[in-house]
Amino acid sequence: MSGGGGRWERVRDRVRSSSSSMRGDRQTRTVRLGRVQPQAPGHRTIFCNDREANLPVKFKGNSISTTKYNLLTFLPKGLFEQFRRVANLYFLMISILSTTPISPVHPITNVVPLSLVLFVSLVKEAFEDWKRLLNDRVINSSPIDVLQDQKWESIPWKKLQVGDIIKVKQDGFFPADLLFLASSNPDGVCYIETANLDGETNLKIRKALERTWDYLLPEKAAEFKGEIQCEQPNNSLYTFTGNLIIGKQTLPISPNQILLRGCSLRNTEYIVGAVIFTGHETKVMMNAMNVPSKRSTLERKLDKLILMLFGVLFVMCFIGAIGSGVFINRKHYYLGLNDRVEDQFNPNNRFVVAILTMFTLITLYSTIIPISLYVSIEMIKFIQSTQFINKDLNMYHRESNTPALARTSNLNEELGQVEYIFSDKTGTLTRNLMEFFKCSIAGEVYGHGITEIESGGAQRSGLRIDETKKSSTAVHEKGFNFDDARLMRGAWRNEHDPDACKEFFRCLAICHTVLPEGDESPEKITYQAASPDEAALVVAAKNFGFFFYRRTPTMIMVRESHVEKIGKIQDVSYEILNVLEFNSTRKRQSVICRYPNGRLVLYCKGADTVIYERLAYGNDTIKNVSRGHLEQFGSAGLRTLCLAYRDLNSELYESWNEKFIQAKSTLRDREKKMDEVAELIETDLILIGCTAIEDKLQEGVPSCIETLSRAGIKIWVLTGDKMETAINIAYACSLINNSMKQFVISSETDEIREVESRGDTVETARFMKESVKKELKRCIQEAEHSMHTLSGNKLALIIDGKCLMYALDPQLRVTLLNLSLNCHAVVCCRVSPLQKAQVTSLVKNGARKITLSIGDGANDVSMIQAAHVGVGISGLEGMQAVMASDFAIAQFRFLTDLLLVHGRWSYIRICKVVTYFFYKNLTFTLTQFWFTFQTGFSGQRFYDDWFQSLYNVIFTALPVIIVGLFDKDVSASLSKRYPQLYKEGIKNMFFKWRVLAVWAVFSVYQSLIFFYFTTAASRNSKNASGKLFGLWDVSTMAFTCVVVTVNLRLLMTCNVITRWHHISVIGSILAWFIFIFLYSGIMTPYDRQENIYFVIYVLMSTFFFYLTLLLVPVVALLGDVIYQGLQRWFAPYDYQIIQELHRHEPEQRSRPDLLEIGTAMTVDEERTFAISQLPRETSKHTGFAFDSPGYESFFASLHGVNVPQRAWDVARRASMRSRQPRTSIR
Amino acid sequence: MKSRVCMGWLQRRPVYQDQVLKELHVEDRSSILGSMDNDEASTSGSNLEIHSGFRNTLHSSVYGFTQQNLPACKPVLTPGWVITMFLSVGFICIPIGVAALLASQSVVEIVDRYDTECIPEVFRDNKVAYIKDDSISKNCTRILKVPSYMKAPIYVYYQLDSFYQNHRRYVKSRSDRQLLYGLKYTDTASCKPEETGNGLPIVPCGLVAWSLFNDTYNFVHESVELKVNRKNIAWKSDREHKFGKDVYPFNFQNGSLIGGAKLDPQIPLSEQEDLMVWMRTAALPSFRKLYGVIEIDLDADEILTVFLSNNYNTYSFGGKKRLVLSTKSWLGGKNNFLAVACLAVGSSCIFMALLFVLLHVRNPRTFGDPTYLTLDRKSNFA
User: Fold this and answer.
1) Helix extents (H) in A572-684
2) How far is CA A92 from CA A118, A312, A366, A602, A1130, in A?
3) A155: which of A268, A428, A1027, A1058 is 20 to 30 A away, CA to CA?
């Protein structure tokens, strides 16, 4: 199974790519707010190891097919997909119309471009589908050992059936969703890697039911006759409810016994399992659904342009139709308009003539709709994203080996127009690299360090902080950055309360769900943890002398040193009786353990609020002192946790445990019941102390934010953290500075707390709403006032989640929007994922601005999906955010490159491509239109059929794609040096109606030149023997001029001209000449009017040809040159100024490492406010370490959707999602 | 070969780069290797010697492509450029224009509109009845005075106005296959409504042929008949490839309605040059067609007498008929348009150049002046 890894990666890619493929029009516009479908009612009963018994119920087979088409359905379905595009459908109708006699053109005129476009699209589809098919085949035929007649038989995956007993070997992939029966490991556990499901590389433990441990060998396994009653297949990866019935015994099955398809087995020789769900019913397959793909704003505007073109087309046809009705007359006897004339030319019924001519002209002018536009844009964007964005070395993060990833290519140009960025804090702005920094034990603060935020704040306030010398005992390793000699190396034994210290350290060492890995020595061990906070705490315990080194399902081994006396080491094993998992409603985590001496203790750690509620009476001094410490930590930007414990007696525990087991085995609402039971025992806690963990800012964040804000982008921070932390981070990121006027709308005011304390929720809500309303009104007045004054301070708004809830009320929404749009920086703290999405869509829909959300955790998913562009940080957290995103980058600072370089370029390029397409088709069609006036409005075509059909797809196709790929106004480094250039995109300066109008004016001008110059110049004899030109000579002349001019015009729009430009432009013109030489040189045996025969040779034998070919493009382009010259002179675009500034600088052949963006242009900050003046006094809350994102889909729970429970995976979240699996905390 | 080299190189790399390659999902490993190589070499410079051997042109171009750093020239439309461009276009166009104008002016042209004059006074009120009445003689005499010396060959054209030879119904009413293959080719549906007459196929079929121009001109010069050479008036390609050598007119102009000239059924189509000229349909409703060539010089103030038979009906639709005699220049016939256009473009280019120079002097714009940056100046409020 060595090739398996790649294979599964491919499956994942496919899921990704199918969701991101370009099918914008078929998606519904609803924002999906969670990935979990409601579970269908009903159960399924599976008879294990008994294929006959399972027969009556038709379970699905295990073969999967991810292809969109098969041989039979490919054409119809593929064509159907293609014709969902309006342009294609339009051309289909035109093609059909052109087979009728009213058409002036041969059907090939429209069929050729249409079929070329369809062909390209279908080949692409077929190629993608073929790759999928090959993948499926490989997967379906990979072998698996299944139990048959007491022996393991190897069969392909696709032959697997529900109920089969199979054996999976180490590093093998699970072929279906399995019930875990037995493992070669003695205690019935196995380790699995779920990277293909959620991208997390840390191992997770699964444990089989004790009853089934024995069914390991084939002879024994053959005896296994169980019956599984479980839920119907669903897509919730983290839940499972079911029971295993063996004999008379009913055993509850939890997600802990389920091995999902897509995961692989690690560190276990082999396991035996029973198949529960197969093929498309497996959870991973049911998750593989299409995420609604987004369409860029520019593309939507493009639709409007197309509609406008339809309008122009209609007007042109209407004029022609009227004209034809007027013109047609029997006096033109040479037209043969006698009695048996067909309707279209019947002078007796001018109305019908007009109507039919209308259709004639629609077919004639169909080229006005650029049929190849969409295909060209798709190609351009595809190459842009796969070749440029994905391979940009400036966005490649060496440390984590992560390049940028454009998961969809629809939104490249949207990146160039972003005006609002909504950013998550943890993991996005900060590193999510948690380091144990300070702690408070029994009312005493330990740890001397100064956080980055504190020093940043102090610097702003003008204080100079000397780097304090670290003491000799200071330790700095990953997860631990602590300096206090009083606790290190056993010195804590001399503190005033050594027992509390001991409890503190034991709590750190025992109460967690961390998995140790590797060598059992303090230097080499690696911790696999659900969150980096947890790992940091365990590392801290290790450094304090309580080294947690081994975990079995029932035991935790801790090597304790310096406990009895300094230097003494003893290994203690604590029996773990229960683990009460963390979830966001509980906000705490408890472990009940039994000491070797029989002492029963519950250790608990969690958010201050929940812990304080559950403390026993008394000991108020410690509580108050600790609370003060929590606040102190919080304002230093640290994340805090409270630790507490409770001694239990065995009767109390036994009676509680019964309830707990009962709750565990319920089928419905298991999670809720378990929470309720846990509540019973987590009371009367005794506070030990609290921990403070530093969350470091990511590299380059402040300068990135600075650059982005100079680019006119407004950055909002939406975080679950508390207000002080958020404000501090905002300061540290230079998002807020002291020269800004700050509006703080907080729910933590004394009045609100007073009302809250009365306990009347209705009253509280009413009061909150009123006060929020009042605050908003006040703020907006002040904002207006300050905007009218000359000083014009920049504004900042800080609002917390509770207030936001009321502010988002439909009545107040507009006020909130007005206020926040006038603010430079907005910080929303303590917001739920739902609120993040709401705020995003408020700006997106309310202000009609282009928004970008960036985040890294599961709690950012909704926000990422709600924004125009979603960016995921493929960093330390799990992959959920990345899976939901449109672009994934490794670091926040890469946003500069993504937006200012790639986004801006893409925007400019796509604008150029679209406007150029508009221009070239309009120009071409207008020449036809002018000709219509000369033909008695009969709709006679000016050009040969083939000219018209190849115009778009051959003669003018390639250069515009080259421009779409290579054009850049200023180099990448200049784009970043002059961020204000980005504002051109925000203001949409290159795709406004005005820009289009300019193009349209020149279109009209040029088409007039093309038609009237060539026709006027071609009157009278043109060669030495006095011979004259006919219609086709003139039109070939005109067409040559059009092709040459339109291609040259493209060069005029280019900011850079590479050799590819030359090749494509000259190639296109040459292609035309080669074509016409061949085409007019041959006669085909088909019924073709030999109009064009020898035309080009006739033309080229005259001086007229060369003179016209010189003159017409010059005259046609003269207007553009004058316009461009004047425009550059009098109203230069900013990019043109920059070009001029740096026009003598040679293009850097290789871009050096990220140019550090200078902050030379920042205004001098007024260093008047010290950090102490931040509004931290108003809050009684403190930072909460587990508030990090992604702990669970808080979002889903708010929606009443099935909560994805994570109880089953011990270390669920990828703590260190690095590519090398074994580099976690050492 | 190349891939082996690259793989060898890969082995000397730290593992992480290999993983990057996987991550980047590159099929073409060598390309990205080249790019990474290039990057490292250029940024650090330390590995330059080791890896320079691998940096062939392909690598650097792929690198330049993915990193969007292809060598390019950046044309900036500076005033200098604009002025130079205008001046050069002006200086190219004006001489050409002068030459073309001289050529056009050297052409001597006699144009004589005869459609009204050739109708007897009594019929002037009802020209259509006159032209349709076969019993009345259509002969008419015109006197032309040669304005200046006309050098042979002198081309004789007829010019029609408001005749829509480019009407869709008209243009397609022909069968080029039939013209080439004659009666052997039977699918003449495109010739409607003139594909058959009296139940028999018509050769040549279609409205174009049916409406063949049939005025004739005879020139008398100093009481000697001037020979008008009516051979070699069609394009060579038409004569040789479009009209069959053994295709003879058949059943032509036999219907109740006669459109225009009749053809001699004894002469194959490939020699019916009038027809060929007529069937190369004109682009515009006003057109000239070559009638013949006079192969002697005419002196100034000489008198030409034209005996013409005014047969062709342009009176139904009010079209004009003209007789044109013209000499030729290297550029063809008399047509000032190109020359004037050239001159106009050239002079306006020079004018624009002067204007820009003037602007530059009066209102100099420093190039690359950051004060022109607009977006920085504006308030940042939404």
Assistant:
1) 608-613, 620-635, 650-664, 670-681
2) 11, 20, 11, 73, 46
3) A268
Q: Using DSSP, how many helices (H) and how many strands (E) does chain A show?
A: 41, 36
Average pLDDT over residues B357-364: 82
Domain residue ranges of chain A, discontinuous segments joined by +: 160-287, 494-619+637-695
Q: Do B368 and A1142 touch (CB under 8 A)?
A: yes
Identify which of A690-699, B1-10, B104-113 has the greatest average pLDDT.
B104-113
Look at B169 and A1019 and tell me if their CB atoms are within 8 Å.
no
Mean pLDDT, residues B310-332: 88
Query: DSSP characters for A764-802?
Result: HHHHHHHHHHHHHHHHHHHHHHHHHSSS---EEEEEEHH
User: Mean pLDDT across chain B, nearest whole number?
Assistant: 78
CA distances (Å), A886 to each of A650, A873, A982, A1190, in order? 54, 11, 20, 18
Which amino acid would we find at residue B69? Answer: N
User: Which is it for strands A270-277 and A851-855: parallel, antiparallel or unpaired?
Assistant: unpaired
pLDDT of res. A1193:
30
Question: Measured between CA atoms, how close is A407 to chain B, in angstroms?
Answer: 12
Q: B6 near B30, Cβ under 8 Å?
A: yes
- Residue pair A715/A421 in contact (Cβ under 8 Å)? The answer is yes
Answer whether B32 touches A (CB < 8 Å): yes
CA separation (Å) from A1125 to A920, A953, A1030, A1121, B78? 21, 31, 39, 6, 8
Binding residue numbers of A: 424-426, 534, 582, 605, 639, 719-721, 830, 836, 856, 859-860
- Low-confidence stretches of chain A (pLDDT < 50) are 1-40, 1149-1226
Tell whether B280 lies on the interface with A, counting CB pairs under 8 A: yes
* Optimal mutation site among A741, A1019, A1022, A1127, interface B, most CBs of chain B within 10 A: A1019
The residue type at A1184: F
Taking the alpha carbons at both ends of chain B, their separation in whole angstroms is 59
- Contact status of B100 with chain A (Cβ, < 8 Å): yes
User: What is the Cα–Cα distance from A50 to A46, expressed in whole angstroms?
Assistant: 9
Fold annotation for A160-287: 2.70.150
Residues 6 or more apart in contact with residue A302 via CB below 8 angstroms: A373, A914
- Taking the CA of residue B362 and the nearest CA in chain A, the distance in Å comes to 13
Kindly state whether A1101 is in contact with chain B, defined as any CB-CB distance less than 8 angstroms.
no
Separation of alpha carbons A990 and A1003, rounded Å: 17
B262-306 pLDDT tens trace:
888 889 888 889 999 998 889 999 999 999 999 889 988 888 899
Tell me the shortest Cα–Cα distance from A133 to chain B, in angstroms.
19
**Burial readout A1152-1176 (b: 16 or more C-beta within 10 A, e: otherwise):** eebeebeeeeeeeeeeebebeebeb
Distant-in-sequence, close-in-space partners of A1204: CB < 8 Å, separation ≥ 6 = A36, A236, A237, A238, A239, A1192, A1193, A1196
Pair B207, B194: CB distance under 8 Å? yes
- For domain A494-619+637-695, give its CATH number from 3.40.1110.10, 3.30.200.20, 2.115.10.20, 3.40.50.300: 3.40.1110.10
Active site residue A484: no
Contact: B168, A935; criterion CB under 8 Å: yes
A136, A164, A198, A424: which one is catalytic?
A: A424
Sign of torsion over alpha carbons A409, A410, A413, A415: negative
Widest distance between CA atoms in chain B: 107
Whether residue A860 contacts residue A853, with contact meaning beta carbons closer than 8 Å, is answered with yes
- Closest partner residue to B284 (CB to CB) among A824, A934, A1153 is A934
Which residue in B66, B168, B288 is closest to A388 by CB distance?
B66
pLDDT at B347 over 90: yes
Of A1121, A1129, A1134, the CB nearest to B85: A1121
